[in-house]
Write a sequence for this structure.
């Protein structure tokens, strides 16, 4: 699986350490999951924006 290196602020690192302690999961696994979620959420938002843009263009073209 491809790997990505990230830099965290001291505050985010502390939160990640705390979450790792609470969940018993590795920090790297938690960080990877948060990155994955963020990418999927952003991709879904971008798809929705593209869909709405295409829909608006189609409507404008039909009204001409």
């Amino acid at each position: 699986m491809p790997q990505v290196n990230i830099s965290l602020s001291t505050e985010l690192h502390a939160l990640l350490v705390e979450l790792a302690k609470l969940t018993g999961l590795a920090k790297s696994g938690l960080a990877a999951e948060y990155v994955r979620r963020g990418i999927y959420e952003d991709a879904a938002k971008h798809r929705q924006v593209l869909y709405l843009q295409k829909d608006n263009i189609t409507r404008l073209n039909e009204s001409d």
Remarks:
- Residues 10-63 form one domain.
